[in-house]
Design goal:
Strand order of the largest sheet: 6-7-8-3-9-10
CATH superfamily of the largest domain: ABC transporter type 1, transmembrane domain
Number of domains: 2
Radius of gyration: 35 Å
Number of helices: 19
Order of helices and strands: HHHHHHHHHHEEEHEEHEHHHHEHEEEHH
CATH class of the largest domain: Mainly Alpha
CATH architecture of the largest domain: Up-down Bundle
Helix content: 55-70%
Oligomer: single chain
Distance between the termini: 94 Å
Largest sheet: 6 strands, mixed
């Protein structure tokens, strides 16, 4: 049997390594996924042992064949057919059991990936708005993708590399100890221990290079995603060259780290090859000496050679697998750290669903700050009776939109409370609270899907007739019919294929479709021209009849019909009353009204 060359298998790693992680705890996190399919796992392990047993048996049969042929006067015609039949059967069995193991584990691996993906996305939706505002989307998606793939990788490494190699080492070792001098097992084990030790030490040494490389990869990915998300801003300021310089600078650092990573991988591969070469040579010298001394046969030489091939080929893989296994552990650890992030906003243990019927709203002595050193709201008090409309106006930065975020419980109040029908919203489940509210935000972001999907998002189970009716009320239906694809028109990433006014009409349509008990308009007509604004204001007035409505507005002309207008400045309510009463007071509202009327008149003169 010819000697087979041993070449280290070269892989490229793709993950970074967080410090101070516990590898065993990370591996234990896989157990629930395996336990769900414990029957399949057990069957796969049995198939694994049978496959390796058949593989080892092939070498034993091969020894018998060689010994038979080495006897003078024997020929292939006289060779016992049973050995040939056994040889073929064992090869077939090894392959069959190996494939059976793969088939059994396929469901385990892919189901685990599916469960993890769903679990991670669900957890991300539970995390607070503050968390998402502080994270780079590009880096976050990369971490999630790596973490999800790491689950499959870890299962693969355990089931297809580590466990098979351990089973093979045990079987070969037992045969060497039983059939040959102890020195065979000693040299073999010495080589294995030296190989593993060298691999562990060298891999740990090169980890920092890989860690920096992956950190820079994440950073460059985040920069690229940010640059493309802000495509219009980049174009507005002509900063394409600036973006490329920033991106290339990060990639330049990544290149240096990548070169060091590859160089250190070469050192690892060279060391592994040297240990393999010395181990093979040592055992073959022992076997050759045994043949010369008449203690071993030619078949024994072939058997030992075959065993070494069977042993060192998976060991050669195992050295690289260890590195990959460490990186997969790091990826999974990053994902586990993400799953361990505690949501800032949680339902209380005794939280109840919001009772049906009309709702009233009250902000009671509400204080709030995003950061401890910057107070946004200071003692805000107001009532919004059921079925009425309250408008909040004031200069930019006065805290108007913060009221909406507190109402949706994206943040918790620092002091005071927000009440619905006298119930603190912290005593109401988030799901029932948000299902009762619909909002038309100032900056409408749409899904990269069809117009129909984006409108129906307000009520996914609504009929097509209801969707089209909502579009009509938002003065969007006729526009949609002019498009070649109609309601099936894809709006592009974040809806950028539509104008700002068209995006807001989609937001208005899906808010109407939701049929909420509380309507919130946060600068809902800010992107519309005067004609469209007046049309939509009429529609909104019709839709909001009988509903509790909160309007955040900059244009005072859009809230003249409000039952009460709150004028905010520096996080406090400075004035309150209806339009005519506030004008009569001659305060901040009257001043803002006069400024806007003057601007309107000047724009009409220019036009």
């Amino acid at each position: 049997m010819p000697m087979m060359p041993f070449q280290p298998v070269r892989y490229h790693n793709h993950t970074s390594l967080p410090a101070n992680r516990n590898d065993w705890n990370t591996v234990r996190a896989l157990l629930p996924f395996l336990w769900d399919y414990r029957g399949r796992v057990l069957a796969a392990l049995i198939a694994l042992v049978l496959s390796k047993g058949a593989t080892v048996g092939i070498s034993l049969v091969l020894k018998g064949i060689v010994d038979h042929l080495s006897v003078p006067g024997q020929s292939a015609l006289t060779m016992p057919l049973v050995l040939l039949a056994t040889y073929g059967a064992l090869r077939l069995a090894a392959s069959a059991f190996n494939e059976l193991r793969d088939v059994l584990f396929a469901r385990v691996r892919h189901r685990a990936m599916r469960k993890v993906s769903v679990q991670v996305l669900a957890h991300l939706h539970r995390l607070s708005l503050r968390y998402h505002l502080e994270r780079h989307t590009g880096a976050l998606t990369l971490d999630i993708d790596r973490g999800t793939r790491s689950v499959s990788s870890l299962i693969n490494y355990l089931a297809f590399s580590i466990l098979p190699t351990l089973v093979e080492i045990i079987l070969i070792t037992l045969i060497l100890l039983e059939r040959y001098n102890f020195s065979f097992a000693l040299v073999t084990f010495g080589s294995v221990v030296l190989y593993i030790t060298f691999t562990l030490i060298t891999t740990e040494w090169r980890m920092p290079f890989r860690h920096r490389m992956n950190s820079l990869e994440s950073e460059s990915s985040a920069q690229a995603v940010d640059s493309l998300i802000n495509y219009e801003t980049v174009k507005f300021f002509g900063n394409e060259a600036h973006e490329l310089r920033r991106y290339e600078a990060t990639l330049s650092d990544w290149e240096e780290a990548a070169v060091k990573t590859q160089t250190s991988l070469g050192a690892l591969n060279a060391g592994q090859s040297s240990i393999i070469a010395f181990g093979v040579t040592g055992v073959m010298v022992l076997a050759t000496h045994g043949i010369v001394a008449g203690q071993l046969t030619l078949g024994d030489l072939v058997l030992v050679n075959a065993f070494l091939i069977q042993l060192f080929i998976p060991l050669n893989f195992l050295g690289v697998v260890y590195s990959q296994f460490k990186h997969a552990l790091a990826d999974m650890e990053q994902m586990l750290q993400l799953l361990e992030k505690t949501p800032e906003i949680c339902d209380r243990a005794n939280a109840i669903s919001l009772p049906k019927g009309e709702v009233s709203l009250r902000f009671e002595s509400v204080h709030f700050s995003y950061q401890p050193d910057r107070l946004i709201l200071q003692g805000v008090n107001f009532d919004l009776p059921a079925g009425q409309k309250v408008a909040v106006v004031g200069p930019s930065g006065s805290g108007k939109s913060t009221l909406v975020r507190l109402l949706f419980r994206f943040y918790e109040v620092t002091e005071g409370q927000v009440l619905i029908n006298g119930l603190d919203i912290r005593d109401i489940t988030q799901q029932s609270l948000r299902s009762a509210i619909a909002i038309v935000p100032q900056d409408t972001v749409l899904f990269n899907d069809t117009l129909y999907y984006n409108i129906a998002y307000g009520h996914p189970n609504a009929s097509r007739r209801d969707v089209e009716q909502a579009a009509q009320l938002a003065y969007l239906h006729d526009f949609i019919l002019t498009l070649p694809q109609g309601y099936e028109t894809v709006v592009g990433d974040r809806g950028l294929k539509l104008s700002g006014g068209e995006r807001q009409r989609v937001a208005i349509a899906r808010a109407i479709l939701k049929n909420p008990r509380i309507l919130v308009f946060d600068e809902a007509t800010s992107s519309l021209d005067s004609r469209s604004e007046q049309s939509i204001l009429m529609a909104l007035a019709e839709v909001s009849k009988g509903r509790t409505t909160l309007v955040i507005a900059h244009r005072l002309s859009t809230v003249m019909d409000a039952d009460q207008i709150l004028v905010m400045e520096h996080g406090q309510i400075k004035e309150r009353g209806n339009h005519h009463a506030l004008l009569a007071e001659g305060g901040l509202y009257a001043h803002l009204w006069a400024l806007q009327q003057k601007e309107s008149q000047e724009s009409q003169v220019v036009a």
